[in-house]
Amino acid sequence: MEPITFLNRYTNSTETEQVYGESFLKWAYANPLGKIALHSFVKRPFFSKWYGQRMDSPKTKEKIAPFIEQYQMNADEFLDSPDSYQHFNDFFYRKLKPEARPIADSDLVFPADGRHLGFQNAEKVSGVFIKGQQWDLRALINHDRLYDQFKNGSLVLSRLCPVDYHRFHFPCDGTPTEARLINGPLFSVSPIALRQNLSYMWQNKRTCTILETPNLGRVLILEIGATCVGSIHQTYQAHSPVSKGDEKGYFAFGGSSTITIFQEGKVQLADDLLTHSSQQQELYAKMGDVMGTSV
Question: Is the dihedral of CA 105, 107, 112, 116 positive or negative?
Answer without folding.
Answer: negative
